[in-house]
Write a structure and sequence with these properties.
It is a multi-pass membrane protein. By secondary structure, this protein is mainly α. It contains 16 helices and 4 strands. Helix 6 crosses helix 12, helix 9 packs across helix 10 and helix 10 crosses helix 12. The longest helix is centred in the N-terminal third of the chain and has 31 residues. It is globular.
Length: 343
Amino acid sequence: MDTLLLQILNGLDKGSAYALIALGLTLIFGTLGVVNFAHGALFMLGSFCAVTFSRLLSLSSVKLDETKLDFLGNPTEIKTPYVEAWFGPETGAAIIDWAVPLSLLLAIPFMILVGFVMERGLIKHFYKRPHADQILVTFGLAIVLQEIIKAIFGANPIPTPAPDIFKGSFDFGLALGMDANKIIYPYWRMVYFSFSLVVIGAVFSFLQFTTFGMVVRAGMADRETVGLLGIDIDKRFTFMFGIAAAVAGVAGAMYTPINSPNYHMGMDFLVLSFVVVVVGGMGSLPGAVLAGFMLGILESFASMNWIKDIIPGIDQIIIYLVAIIILLTRPRGLMGRKGVMEE
């Protein structure tokens, strides 16, 4: 039982990332019919929003302390972060400590802007082009964004810690009446899972219970009819592209304490997230979320040592094996609409 619970917990954080990225991918495909291979790069940009925000908060003024000398006899430099000078030492230190969650204040508007620019400047010219053209141009854009990040931040991963209060792990085993230290789970992974549920719930609530969302859902089902009603569905879809970019961005920003940001992390998640979308069903938002968590947990079980001893490398290919089985038996995916990907 403890092994079962531990593997489920281990799969939740990666499954959360898969679900959030796949949710944005499905929003774009469902509304615009575009296969966006740059979506992983949006996840990466979100993570570097957290890095940038953390660095901005750490900007400091430098003063020389003549009373203290270094080993060369020079006055010692004393660095005081500007936020500590503005808000006081305790409040400033707390703001710096909470840099990752606070980076959402930068990530959300920035990613919405990036989404608008991508859609209006590039994607709109490929609406009526074949999916192969869409894949090529968005994949090329992803490479460009990747190289820009590499040039600015370098090729090495950049550690970005979680707030001190969330460092350490929670003993699930002890809480469930089992032996201590049997089921240990990091606090920040719990935070990330809870955060993903909030974002997913917010997106579904927006689409389900707002007039704007209802029009978008109607446009996803029958774009031409909605247009004939005098509604400018294109502007709404552009806004949804920005929302999809923001979802990927906040997913990346909050994931930084789990996986240190690096320039190729977008590509690492991109292919897996497309597999998640295919398994869940192209255009199905519930399917994308379900498949994201399911495949994350399945990947966690496949990484167990005794399973890898029986089938070496199974943890690297298990998601693709599931995708092959789904495509052979149910081409439209677990929750895809009938006729989608079945022609």
